[in-house]
Amino acid sequence: xxxxxxxxxxxxxxxxxxxxxxxxxxxxxxxxxxxxxxxxxxxxxxxxxxxxxxxxxxxxxxxxxxxxxxxxxxxxxxxxxxxxxxxxxxxxxxxxxxxxxxxxxxxxxxxxxxxxxxxxxxxxxxxxxxxxxxxxxxxxxxxxxxxxxxxxxxxxxxxxxxxxxxxxxxxxxxxxxxxxxxxxxxxxxxxxxxxxxxxxxxxxxxxxxxxxxxxxxxxxxxxxxxxxxxxxxxxxxxxxxxxxxxxxxxxxxxxxxxxxxxxxxxxxxxxxxxxxxxxxxxxxxxxxxxxxxxxxxxx
Length: 299
Description:
Blueprint: E1 2-7, H1 20-29, E2 33-38, H2 44-52, E3 58-63, H3 65-75, E4 83-88, H4 94-98, H5 105-114, E5 118-125, E6 128-130, E7 133-137, H6 142-145, H7 148-154, H8 157-166, E8 173-179, E9 182-194, E10 198-199, E11 202-203, E12 217-223, H9 229-238, E13 248-252, E14 254-258, E15 264-267, E16 270-274, E17 277-288, H10 292-298
Parallel strand pairs: 1-2, 1-3, 3-4
Antiparallel strand pairs: 5-6, 5-17, 7-9, 7-15, 8-9, 8-14, 9-12, 10-11, 12-13, 14-17, 15-16
């Protein structure tokens, strides 16, 4: 078995490099082949996976959701796809949390080396792949608008600070949403697509019963409100994603969403495509290592 450890030196507070020798020693003690690669610029991880990924049996990525997204975009362009292991080192780490993976390196490496991977869906919005979320509207720019410097200094509090600023902005997006069972037309302040129950560091227990291998993506459309916008969104979080009276809740393997051209879509916490989108679910496209708890809950 050949393993490749890839990491983003900028993820989280930029301290994972101190743990790299520990990972190298772990593999050396077991006489396992491990190469190490540190990214140097945006999209570097994706390009490196495309270049060398087929030479490995497993790629282990340490980083946040954005770094994982880059690796997945690389994997999806390979005919022979290595298995995927995750060592979280970002700020929110939603993907790792859903897969039952924490920052305990020894525990996670034990899962990667001793457990069988599971097959997981991958979604695609236009030509960009994502694992768990795509969204447009209020709050969706926060994860990629915050500077790295601010994130390192304030951590998750930086997201909360930027979120407060979003509440004073006007979001009323006209949408026409075609899905597996029909068409929905309306004016919404948030379109939130999720494959599971977590986003922005928050677990939405009542959002859905989604699985990560069911070939579906759930889409929640929250109508625009001129007044009491803040209370509507706070209620959504406090009620753990429970469907509101006027919310639209869809579950589909395909969406075509017509919106204005300047609307930006967030994919796995990163700035994605703009304007009209087509979203498709690719069933069981990659193999990924997960905890026993996540295996029971999401697969």
